[in-house]
Design goal:
The protein is of the alpha/beta class. 29% of the residues lie in helices and 29% in strands. The strands form 2 sheets. Strands 3-2-1-7-8-10-9 form a 7-stranded mixed beta sheet, sandwiched between helices. A 3-stranded mixed beta sheet has the order 4-6-5. Helix 6 links the parallel strand 7 and strand 8.
């Protein structure tokens, strides 16, 4: 009976929304569960853009601390305006990586695609370099110092620069409670690690897969370009 209802719902919904739109909705439903069930008290929002992810967290009921990192000055201004209305949301006009430096960031036609890497998929002109911007880069392990990360979710959306962010946490990466990042199947940038490389890297640090959701549109053959990947740190048996 339940399966019949599910199939009927699938038939009706297929005329209204795409499977990827339903997956995106499911992602936020799962995030709400994760935040509640794992007792997350802080989210590190690396690659915040204009604060879309932080705003979504507030919409699904998360009231804990959010710390956003966004390197493009004019884009960070949009976050600054939103943070002024939220006492538990702070931010820094910085990039995050594995070396403290000042680097050239490629600013794309659509700022959400901005990256230290060069694009190989133009995304219909949206992923096109319009200028470069010199930005300061910090390592999270030094920036966070001795902060307890045992109830922290790290979200990373850095357009192919995710592994550098992870390495910049050093040994402290393995103390996070959960990680959410983009993993690439059909790369949008050069020198981008594959989905398997990122998943295996995190698996070696005791993070277990929890959720995949396709993002970034699809190729002509319907293959996914990228997935949002959520994983949680395996807890030691008592």
């Amino acid at each position: 009976m339940l399966r019949s209802i599910q199939l009927r719902m699938a038939e009706v919904l297929s005329h209204l929304v795409s499977a990827d739109q339903i997956s995106a909705l499911s992602k936020y439903i799962f995030l709400r569960q994760l935040l509640n069930d794992l007792g997350i008290v802080e989210v590190l929002d690396v690659g915040a853009n204009a604060g879309q992810f932080a705003t979504a967290l507030r919409h699904i009921g998360f009231r804990g601390a959010i710390t956003s990192f966004e390197p493009i000055p004019e884009v960070f201004d949009a976050i600054r305006t939103k943070m002024a209305r939220d006492a538990n949301w702070s931010g820094h006009n910085l990039a995050v990586g594995d070396n403290e430096a000042v680097l050239e960031l490629n600013v794309m036609a659509s700022s959400v695609y901005s990256s230290f890497n060069s694009p190989v998929d133009g995304q219909d002109g949206r992923n096109r370099i319009v200028r470069t911007c010199r930005v300061p880069v910090i390592r999270l392990d030094r920036f966070l110092d001795q902060r307890d990360l045992g109830r922290t979710l790290l979200k990373v959306d850095t357009q192919g620069y995710e592994m550098q962010v992870f390495r910049g946490l050093g040994d402290r990466l393995a103390t996070l409670r959960a990680v959410m990042c983009e993993v690439s199947v059909n790369a949008l940038y050069d020198a981008t690690p594959s989905m398997n490389q990122v998943v295996n890297f995190l698996s070696e640090r005791a993070f277990k897969p929890a959720f995949f959701s396709p993002v970034g549109g699809r190729a002509d053959d319907l293959s996914a370009r990228e997935f949002d990947y959520i994983c949680t740190r395996q807890q030691s048996a008592v």
